[in-house]
From TrEMBL:
This is Membrane dipeptidase. One of its GO terms (biological process) is proteolysis. GO terms for molecular function: metallodipeptidase activity. It holds the Pfam family Peptidase_M19. It comes from the Bacteria. It comes from Streptomyces apricus. InterPro entries: Metal_Hydrolase, Pept_M19.
Length: 373
């Protein structure tokens, strides 16, 4: 973890960004004052993000690009929420590109569609070498940032992409997959993980694929926290206590996720967090209070078809959100963890866990028929 600690104390020293606490009024009459205070903090937000850019936990760009006959992310692309000018304006340094599939796509069709999206991700990255770089490890994410590129990490993919095969899991990892969502499969349902589902998690640990538990049942989440030797993610989950969305997490699960050193990536969607920057900040405050500052992150959820809060319509809005958090008294150290450090910790720990597991454990040949039949 020494290299991560070094990153958190580079050019922008923590002491250089001691927050200015701005009291925000409870009523709508204070909105203009709060907005003005946020604008005053924008220069500091940009400076902090220049040193600790955003590692964005979810982008639906691959599926969105499938429907465009032509695009150029370097000069800007109005047909999607994400392009390089807006990523640079928002100080995004890493981006998870979702490989999720339309509901009902299963079996060979799900595997094929996932492979096609992986191929598209590689094609898009290769077509924009001055702005994007594929990253398969935490070290490669840091290298991309140091070269002024946005690191692209394939995933999360849906569990249907495995077609109940651990061999397909290993093949997808070899092609770059970093995150798999544990929901929508017979082995990860309302009653939790089956024996085969537990073997999937163990093999994910062995090959370095991180488990995403957004949308999974409470029982699946709890069992995955017990089984997994690597930290887990919730790529699109906010606080259910503030907004009762089914993908949001109740307080007890947020506390358990924090105790296990997992990571809750709060989505910037109006449906899950609310219609304003302040609503998103409320969720971030809540998750930080319950899970801890090392267990909260950001998930833009752009190009997913979701509506976004005012001021956060695309990735260029991240400085506004950070300015709001500065105004609430968030320290530079906590903000550096929120934007960059926490995702890097999860990736580094997953990489270390995989190397250790490969020494102890051969590739699993278990089948769903053998374990759950």
């Amino acid at each position: 973890m020494a290299d991560l600690q070094d990153e958190l104390h580079t050019t922008a020293e923590v002491g250089a960004f001691e927050p200015l606490v701005v009291e925000a009024g409870a009523g709508d009459g204070h909105a203009d004052e709060a907005d003005a205070a946020g604008a005053d903090l924008l220069p500091r937000a940009h400076a902090l993000l220049a040193a600790h850019p955003v590692a964005d936990g979810y982008s639906g760009l691959p599926w969105a690009l499938r429907h465009l006959s032509w695009y150029d992310l370097e000069i800007g692309e109005s047909a999607v929420d994400t392009d390089l000018p807006r990523l640079r304006e928002g100080h995004v340094g890493a981006l998870f590109w979702s490989l999720h599939l339309p509901e009902g796509l299963v079996g060979e069709r799900a595997v094929g569609a996932t492979l096609e999206q992986l191929d598209l991700v590689r094609t898009v990255v290769e077509a924009h070498p001055e702005g994007l770089r594929m990253a398969h490890s935490a070290a490669q994410v840091t290298d991309a940032r140091n070269c002024g590129r946005v690191a692209v990490l394939p995933g999360p993919a849906g569990a249907a992409a495995l077609d109940d095969s651990l061999g397909i899991l290993r093949s997808l990892r070899a092609l770059g997959l970093r995150v798999l969502t544990l929901s929508g499969a017979s082995w990860a349902g309302v009653n939790g993980l089956t024996r085969f589902g537990e073997e999937v998690v163990r093999e994910m640990n062995r090959v370095g694929v991180v488990a995403d538990l957004s949308g999974a049942s409470d029982a699946t989440l709890r069992r995955a926290l017990t089984i997994s030797k690597a930290p887990v993610l919730c790529t699109r989950s906010a606080a259910r206590a503030l907004r009762p969305h089914p993908a949001n997490l109740p307080d007890d699960l947020l506390a358990e996720l924090g105790a296990a050193k997992g990571l809750c990536l709060v989505p910037l969607t109006a449906e899950q967090t609310g219609p304003s920057v302040r609503d998103v900040a409320d969720h971030l405050d809540h998750v930080r209070d319950l899970a801890g500052p090392e267990c909260v992150g950001l998930s833009g959820t752009y190009d997913s078809g979701a509506a976004h809060p005012r001021g956060l319509a695309d990735a260029s809005g991240y400085p506004r959100l950070v300015a709001e958090l500065l105004g609430r008294g968030w320290s530079a150290a906590d903000l550096a963890l929120l934007t960059w450090g926490n995702v890097q910790r999860v990736l580094r720990t997953a990489d270390f866990t995989a190397r250790a597991a490969q020494v102890r454990r051969e590739p699993s040949t278990a089948s769903i028929a053998e374990l759950d039949g």
